[in-house]
Amino acid sequence: MAKPVIFTIDDDTSVLNSIERDLRAHYGPDYRILPINKGQAALDYLKKLEQRNETVALFLVDQRMPEMSGTEFLMEATKAYPQAKRVLLTAYADTQAAIESINEVGLDYYLMKPWHPPDERLYPILDELLEDWKVHVRLPYEGIRVAGTLWSLASHQAKDFLTRHQIPYQWLDIEKDPNAHSLVEGVSSDTKLPVIFFPDGKILIEPSLKELADKVGLQTRADLPFYDIVVIGSGPAGLAAAVYAGSEGYKCLVIERAAPGGQAGSSPKIENYLGFPTGISGDDLTRRAVSQAKRFGVEILSAQEVSQIEVRDVYRIIKLGDGTDISCHAALMATGASFHTLKMPGADALTGAGIYYGAAYTEAMHYKDQNVFVVGGANSAAQGALYLSRFASKVTVLIRGHEPTASKYLVDALNENKKIEILLNTDLLEVKGTNTLEQITFKNTRSGETQTLDAAAMFVFIGVRPQSQAVSGLVKCSDKGYIFTGPDLIVDKKPPFDTLRTSPQGWPLERDPLLLETSVPGIFAAGDVRYGTNHRVASAVGEGAIAFALMKEYLKTL
Ligand SMILES: Cc1cc2nc3c(=O)[nH]c(=O)nc-3n(C[C@H](O)[C@H](O)[C@H](O)COP(=O)(O)OP(=O)(O)OC[C@H]3O[C@@H](n4cnc5c(N)ncnc54)[C@H](O)[C@@H]3O)c2cc1C
Questions:
Q1: Which comes out higher in pLDDT, residue 368 or 545?
Q2: Hey, which of 229, 290, 410, 521 has its CA 20 to 30 A from 514?
Q3: In 178-213, which positions are buried (b, 16+ CB within 10 angstroms) versus exposed (e)?
Q4: Whose Cα sits closest to atom 9 in ligand 1?
Q5: Residue nearest ligand 1's atom 45 by CA
Q6: What is the CB neighbour count within 10 angstroms for residue 30?
Q7: Can you tell me which atom of ligand 1 is nearest the CA of 338?
Q8: Residue nearest to atom 41 of ligand 1 (CA)
Q9: How far apart are CA 526 and CA 168, in angstroms?
Q10: Over 530-543, what HEC string results?
Q11: CA of 233, closest atom in ligand 1
């Protein structure tokens, strides 16, 4: 932890040097002594200390300075550091000003110049003040601080990214905390949010996830130009494949566009995954899987999106969004699925500002004692509603169908929860809000009755879309974009040479595609992105493990 600061200001250089020397001699081991000879320069420097979240223990300030009196300085300085002790250094003639200052700025003491000998006239006074300061001070948070608003999508994404990487941070809501507001104003004149303060003094303003990842020391670039196996996506399927590939000594790279864990990583409690009778949170499962994969030498890139895969002879070229290429022999599409976004007017603008897709658990606690809505009736929506009910005063679940499709244990839990109301046969019609979501309108499709209610937030869990864009046009997919593999590709017990309309080269080999191989040899698919998947963690993990075994087979044939 950085030493607390003793700030001393005097325009007379010889006095400043002398007080600095005395302060250093006695307080140097425990405090950082900062001498400055001008009030305004000192205020500017104070802003920097504030941005770095450093603590000031004591201001020792000359009263009579040309551009700004000591009292004026203290009035400004104590806005940011109200707990710091305030001492004026005065000449005999200034005592009246010092006395007035006691009321104006809550002065703790005024010291007469000269203060020699310091053992008698300086240290005992400051010792006592500093002891008192130590007892009452609340030391500042030393880690990363994210300052923003609840209605800023980029703030939400940054918080979510840090949370998903299990990197601790402090959230500063600039609408609720005036100090946070002035902290942000001090560094950013426009409305760009979030502003992220790092302990080393670095500040990022509305950073991309990649900039943030680089700053917090996550790997965003591959160490090698070539890998045996590249896995795209770090949900359960991708991580399972990576653990097996790493454990058998293959050079394996995992590329993740956001943070590891995928959809499962956002689950507050997975209760049906084998071996965890009381459930396991998605965070925990992800943390364990990531450390397991890394232990076996797997590299995991964060905040890197795969934009395309190309085929060059026996190489599969993985093209990243930042323009870099990585080459491999076998690639696994484990890119999963994501929720449909609402297509109604106003919904886009309110995304991250009250409307969240999937389990935005970083935001749940901000809706304490408020009315929130969940849209959807499957397992993920049910889990979301149960989790939100820990904070919100009421959670209303809107389900289009005539019953929830979630597993029985979740439906039972929903029905038992007094804070949760389920509205069946309900269609969401409209969302309204200026900066944040304020109201939603929905309709009962049986009775035709519409209702508009105040809504602090709405968490949407409807429909899933396979994330197969990186291979669309290259491998054969269903109409909805799910990737066909193995037996799905066999027509009349033969690889469908002519029927692979979306695969320009067709199937070039004598053998059939392997079980989880796509219509392009050497490109495999597993988990929620694959046609026929059943959208469960255990299935994704199982498919990831099988996909590795098949990639191993494939590599032997090269
Ligand atoms: C809230 C919630 C709760 C759930 N609870 C349960 C449960 O209790 N039990 C259960 O069995 N199942 C549950 N599920 C379903 C389960 O999580 C999924 O079936 C499972 O995560 C699918 O794993 P996956 O690896 O195939 O894909 P995903 O988990 O979707 O992971 C895919 C990953 O690929 C990344 N990606 C996508 N495109 C790219 C690209 N172009 N470049 C780089 N990376 C990319 C994504 O960012 C993502 O991290 C839940 C799902 C949700 C959303």
A1: 545
A2: 290
A3: eebbebbebebeeeebbbbbbeeeebbbbbebbebb
A4: 270
A5: 233
A6: 12
A7: 30
A8: 306
A9: 32
A10: ECCCCCCHHHHHHH
A11: 34
Is residue 301 within 8 Å of 256, Cβ to Cβ? yes
Contact between 100 and 88 under an 8 Å Cβ cutoff? The reply is no
Q: Rounded distance, CA 229 to CA 255, Å?
A: 11
Q: Average of pLDDT values for 414-437?
A: 95
Give the nearest ligand 1 atom to 266 CA.
Answer: 1
Section 335-358 average pLDDT: 91
Q: Is the CB of 238 under 6 A from ligand 1?
A: yes
- pLDDT higher than 60, residue 246: yes
Beta bridge partners, 357, equal 460
**Res 502: pLDDT:** 44
pLDDT value at position 199? 87
Residues 482-509: pLDDT tens digits?
999 998 887 765 665 545 444 444 688 8
> Which residue has tokens 């500042």?
140
Span from the CA of 21 to the centroid of ligand 1 (angstroms): 61
In the chain, pLDDT over 70 holds for what percent of residues? 97
Atom 29 (ligand 1) nearest CA: 262
CA atoms within 13 A on the CB side of 205: 11
Residue nearest to atom 49 of ligand 1 (CA): 262
Q: Look up the pTM and report it.
A: 0.83
